[in-house]
Amino acid sequence: MKRIILTFDDGPNPPYTSIILNILKKYRIKAIFFLLGHNVKLHPKVALMIKEEGHIIGNHTFSHKDLKKLPKTGIKKQIIEAEKVFLGVLGIKPAFFRAPYGFYDKKAEDIIKKRGYRIVNWDIDPEDWKNPPAKIIAERVISQAKHKSIIVLHDGSNIRQARPRRETTAALEIIMKKLKNKGFVFDTGIFL
Ligand SMILES: [Zn+2]
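That is the input. Now the predicted structure with zinc ion docked in place:
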C-alpha cells in the first residue's frame, strides 16, 4: 500500500481552513495542521474545529520567525508561547513540530527535541504559497508523490490575515481524487 501524508501550515486562516476541513471530511482523510500560536489566538474556534474533526495539530511556533536567526532564548520563547496557546485553547501539547520555512540549525534542533517534539519536514512542496493556478499545484504534487511522501500545503500565510488560498483549496480536490485513483492512502499514522 502506498501511504502519503498531507500537512497544512500557517493556519488557522478563515475561511480557507474551514474549506479545507470540509474537503478532508468529504474524502474521509486526516491530515496534520501545523498551526501558529499567534493565529490560534485570533481564531480559536477554527483551531478547535481542526482538533474536533480528528486531525493532528503540530506546533509551527508562535509567530513564524526564522529560528536560525534567533538566540536560544528567542527559539524557546517561540516554541513555549505557542504551547501556552495550544494548551489554553485546545487543551493539548502537540507532539510534532515544524520549523518556519523548514529552517533550523543544530542549536534549534536540540531545543525542539529537548521539549519532546518530533520534527516533521516534507519532501513535496508545490509552492502553493506563491498562489500558482490550482492545476499547477495539483500537477506538482501528483507527479512527485511516492510511498511515505509528506506534502506541504498552506491554509494560511505566516501571521498575515485573510490571505487568499483559493488555488490551494481547488488543488486539494484534484489531489484527493487523483492520488486515491492511483492507490494512495492518506495517513497520519506513519510517525505514530
Ligand atoms: Zn510556515
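The chain has a mean pLDDT of 96.
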